[in-house]
Amino acid sequence: MSTTWHVLGAGSLGTLWATRLARAGLPVRLILRDPARLRAYQAAGGLTLVEQGQSSLLEIPGETSTSSTPIQRLLLACKAYDAEAAVASIAPRLAPGAELILLQNGLGSQDAVAARVPQARCIAASSTEGAFRDGDWRVVFAGHGYTWLGDSGHPTPPIWLDELAASGIPHEWSTQILTRLWRKLALNCAINPLTVLHDCRNGGLQQHQCEVATLCAELSELLQCCGQPAAAQNLQQEVERVILATAANYSSMHQDVSNGRRTEISYLLGYACEAAARHRLQLPHLQQLQQRLVNQLQQRGLPSA
Ligand code: NAD
Ligand code: KPL
Question: Which UniProt keywords apply (predicted)?
């Protein structure tokens, strides 16, 4: 009998993973915020995955964090700012040797979660897949991509990677997951805040090449200083490549801001600026960028941390 995949968070990525695992015949249980959300979910009859215009409904059982069954394997699919509290809510249910897969973008939440549950193995993930919700309990698979998984403390891959393969979840085990997370953080810091400040699609940053280049130089300096030279390699070229490849898209941060949602700023630019301060590194443009973004968020009445 396969180990149950508990999935905490029925948002975009949580639904994308839960539905593909369930479609492959694997046991999945969805952990919802509270009894009211659980009742609403049960009334909907399951999660719907929309892929290439085709909808499929997966009747995945739901529960709340207070359910009594032990958790052996947990996919944590909430936003970075919710991760620590979410894990605290299920911590008493973790079985000995439990494994957590952390899908959060940026850096900082992974350490906070690991400190909350020192008895569990925490595996970090960095994903380029894209999904969005087009209704409650429905997700549209918008961008095919890849997920890198890794555990900086233990290089041994977990036994369940073949279940991801069987579920059609493109992935790779990475012994350098921190480098991947830093690289993605640097990309997001170079692109996302500027798209908010200039109120443009990613492609609009082609009009701000100097600003992007200056940020990439400071981010590269930071990565070197933080012991991540591989993440700094050709950063500017990759940022320019991503700007071109995603020219028609709005960045995730732009989408959050324009929809009045909280951003993950503290785990991206905030984390970068704190790391620079710890290393007594002067990165004036990055710091100015953070201040401008904080001002913009405050003007819109959104949390700036
Ligand atoms: P989302 O907001 O769509 O979903 C998060 C879900 O978690 C929400 O439904 C929320 O209610 C739920 N949640 C929060 N706290 C909870 C708790 N204590 N108990 C139960 N449920 C709880 O977020 P998302 O877009 O799926 O993003 C998740 C993470 O993945 C983020 O860090 C994001 O940056 C990253 N990511 C997302 C995408 C994407 O395409 N959506 C791509 C790559 C990375
Ligand atoms: O990951 C992204 C995002 O929008 O969050 C990209 C497309 C790389 C832009 O930074």
Answer: NADP, Oxidoreductase, Pantothenate biosynthesis
Question: Ligand 2: which of 184, 236, 246 to mutate, judged by most atoms within 8 Å of the beta carbon?
Answer: 246
Is residue 79 annotated as part of the catalytic site, yes or no? Answer: no
Domains of the chain: 5-175 (3.40.50.720), 179-300 (1.10.1040.10)
CA of 269 to the centre of ligand 2 (A): 13
Confirm whether pTM is higher than 0.85.
Answer: yes
Ligand nearest to the CA of 250: 2
126 CB under 6 A from ligand 2? no
pLDDT value at residue 94 = 98
Q: How far apart are CA 90 and CA 8, in angstroms?
A: 9
Is 6 close to ligand 1, i.e. is its CB under 6 Å away?
A: no
Average pLDDT, the chain: 97
